[in-house]
Specification:
- GO terms for molecular function: calcium ion binding; GTPase activator activity; small GTPase binding.
- The protein is of the alpha+beta class and 717 residues long.
- Helix content is 52%, strand content 9%.
- The protein has 32 helices and ten strands.
- The strands form two sheets. Strands 5-6-7-1-2-3-4-8 form an eight-stranded antiparallel sheet. A two-stranded antiparallel sheet has the order 9-10.
- The protein is globular and about 100 Å long.
Length: 717
């Protein structure tokens, strides 16, 4: 389904080089090491495992692995090896600063849940959920990369209770008491031991990696690493959108230091209810980039691919593609009001991140709105951090948003409209009666993640919560904005009035207004009112619901995109010859159907997804005629001779169809004109066509051998 949606628009691959041929396989060679899924292959798994397993079991395992990776924000190459019920226990930090105890309570944990083990991670999620309106989230979620575990001890309390105690590189101990049969517990512990041994080569990379984490700065006295160089984004040099004093950065940083002291930091941080509270009140500017990275899972990708970002820049230095040309056009349109993007330093950073991503994902390349998102990220993050966060946003949070046909954004617009209809039927019916298009205002919200819609100081607050809670927060905020402005929206009669209401709202989103809070009236900003409304009234929207609605609407969006693309391609034809609209539509289906089903190996001579080579041309003919379906070579001489004649005839047709093609590739217009000669020509034009077909040297004369070849092939036909 995803492949169909991606290809529904056709056209060239945006990231494809216009200077030299570099394959995606070359680029991802380093990352592919992470994707081999062979870490337990030393005798533990059969080499024919995939062939032996029934399809149903394989699909179930794939779904289970995807859910596991999504739930804990892990790299997509992780597969679940084991999972047991367990009690997770952790003591409070020693020598705790007594201040702020109410804001950051001691990190004592004693919770029942389930512990999971994959080839690189140990993860835990509690059974207990947060109180409403956060009742869909667990009280505790912990992820420990195995390469951060420095010590493991077995815990045995009686004949029927066993477990493990791990100590991380930040000298924090975490205990897991396993609730399972003794054999299962033993197997879990043995597997953990084997996997830890495989992480030994990665241990030496942990310390240098931590040197790139801002959280180590605030523990300089007892830090494991040298942190004299400040780490961060453009904000360090050009300032942040939000005033540090006004946002109480110092107080927030103190609270985060206490949280790190109690619950770990960067790679080893666990997430308790306090984590969510600290994120929702707004992150301190200095830590914002790192918390984004840790919350989204981009930090694990950056660790696993250290140095890859710079390798991409070095490898493709000076190369050009359609994407790099588009990037150059958009650089000066990226948050032009921010001082950093009025200087060469900011523009160069933005250019490097966008071009590196375009080369790393040539199928997608670059799409407008990426520049807006990355320009916001770079204020708080380094280039490498922004590069990997962009990967998470494009590949996991919002698949298809930044493709050439933006099918993901269109899919989410349908999803959003369904949520509006479900939660605010009066408002939805008003939109339908007045023919107000919701997507006119809301599509830019989603594409730019609200960065282009509201002032930047509030947009980054949306990003804070987005990376913590996932894509559902965009829907909740969108619904809350409609709810807050509901009375005014019911007065609108056209799209213009609709847009004016939101323009005025976003311009005043920082203004304080009096809100009824039960027994008392309090003054809060419009932004905080939106966030309160999003959490209280639209808590029914979950990431699982969004995924389900996306899956339900994929066919509808795909069909709509395909229909639009088909009409556009046909409308742009210079000459439809003597074909009717219906006939052109049939030829379109045959042509692009052959392109779609052609494998990359069969089409590796083609430089464009909208043109076909000789092999794909035969596939198209085979979908329309019986004679083009060549049989497999056998020991039967007659069959092989017929295949040879068939291939010769198709070669001649292909050469004639591509006679004026500089790249020797066939496009849809050429097919229309070529088929018109065959299907709509008169007797004389058919004679001329066959003459050209066999006059290969173009001397205006058919030799006796040409006549013999024509006779053979016409007899075969």
């Amino acid at each position: 389904m995803q492949r169909w949606l991606k290809n529904a628009g056709g056209g060239d691959a945006p990231g494809q080089s216009t200077d030299a041929a570099f394959t995606a396989a070359e680029l991802s060679s380093k990352r592919s090491i992470q994707q081999t899924h062979r870490l337990l292959a030393d005798g533990n798994r059969s080499p024919h495992h995939q062939l032996v397993s029934p399809l149903k079991q394989d699909l179930a395992a794939q779904k289970r692995n995807n859910n596991y990776c999504t739930r804990f924000r892990l790299p997509a190459d992780q597969y679940l090896i084991s999972g047991l019920n367990a009690t997770y226990s952790k003591d409070a930090a020693a020598d705790r600063d007594p201040h702020f105890l109410s804001q950051v309570p001691p990190g004592v944990v004693h919770l029942i849940g389930r512990v999971y083990l994959s080839q690189t991670f140990l993860a835990f999620e509690s059974e207990e959920r947060l109180p409403a309106p956060q009742h869909n989230l667990p009280v505790c979620k912990a992820v420990f990369p195995l390469y951060t575990i420095k010590r493991v001890e077995r815990l045995n309390k009686g004949a029927y209770t066993s477990g493990v105690a791990i100590t991380t590189c930040h000298k924090m101990e975490h205990d897991f008491f396993l609730h399972a049969e003794k054999n299962a517990c033993e197997q879990f512990c043995d597997t953990l031991k084997d996997l830890l041994l495989k992480q030994i080569p990665l241990f030496r990379k942990v310390k240098p990696f931590m040197a790139t984490c801002e959280s180590e700065q605030i523990f300089q006295t007892d830090s494991l690493i040298d942190t004299r160089v400040q780490i961060g984004g453009l904000g360090l040099e050009f300032g942040y959108p939000e005033n540090s004093k006004k946002s109480k950065d110092k107080s927030k940083t103190k609270l985060w230091k206490l949280y790190f002291q109690e619950n770990g930091r960067n790679l080893t941080m666990i997430k308790l209810p306090t984590f969510g509270k600290l994120v929702r009140v707004g992150l301190p500017n200095s830590l914002r980039g790192e918390i984004w990275e840790a919350s989204s899972g981009a930090m694990y990708l950056r660790f696993a691919n250290q140095g890859l970002y710079q390798e991409i820049l070095d490898k493709y230095k000076g190369q050009k593609s359609t994407s790099t040309e588009e990037i150059e056009k958009d650089l000066n349109r990226s948050l032009p009001e921010y001082p950093g993007y009025q200087s060469p330093e900011g523009i160069n950073r933005l250019r490097r991140v966008l071009t590196a991503y375009a080369w790393s994902n040539p199928e997608l390349g670059y799409c407008q709105a990426m520049n807006i998102v990355v320009s916001a990220l770079l204020i708080y993050t380094t280039e490498e951090q922004a590069f990997w966060i962009l990967h998470i946003l494009v590949d996991r949070f919002f698949p298809g948003y930044y493709s050439t046909n933006m099918y993901g954004a269109l899919l989410d617009q349908i999803t959003f409209e369904q949520l509006v209809e479900k939660t605010m039927p009066i408002l939805w019916n008003h939109f339908k009666r007045t023919n107000v298009e919701l997507s006119v205002a809301c599509l830019p919200w989603f594409l730019s993640l609200y960065i282009n819609s509201m002032p930047l100081e509030f947009a980054v607050r949306v990003l804070d919560i987005l990376f913590m809670e996932g894509p559902r927060i965009l829907f909740q905020i969108g619904l809350a904005i409609l709810k807050v402005n509901g009375e005014e929206l019911l007065e609108t009669r056209d799209d213009g009035g609709f847009l004016d209401i939101f323009k005025a709202f976003f311009q005043s989103i920082g203004h304080k207004e009096q809100v009824d809070n039960g027994e008392q009236h309090i003054k809060i900003t419009k932004f905080n009112e939106v966030m309160l409304t999003a959490y209280r009234e639209f808590s029914l929207v979950t990431n699982e619901m969004i995924t389900e609605l996306r899956n339900q609407n994929q066919l509808k969006v795909g069909a709509g995109i395909e229909s639009f693309t088909k009409r556009t391609v046909i409308r742009n034809l210079k000459d439809t010859a003597m074909f009717s609209k219906e006939d052109v539509a049939i030829l379109y289906d045959k042509y692009f159907g052959a392109l779609y089903y052609a494998s990359h190996e069969a089409s590796n001579n083609a430089k464009s997804d909208s043109k076909m080579n000789r092999e794909v041309f035969q596939s198209m003919l085979a979908s329309m005629t019986v004679w083009a379906k060549a049989k497999h070579n056998t020991d039967n001489a007659d069959v092989n001779a017929a295949n040879a004649v068939c291939n010769n005839f198709i070669d001649r047709m292909y050469r004639l169809f591509t006679e004026n093609a500089a790249d020797n590739l066939l496009d849809f217009q050429m097919v229309i004109l070529g088929m018109n000669e065959i299907l709509h020509g008169d007797l004389m034009s058919h004679m001329d066509w066959f003459f050209q077909l066999y006059d290969q040297d173009k001397d205006g004369v058919l030799t006796s051998q040409d006549i013999i070849n024509m006779s053979k092939e016409l007899y075969w036909l």
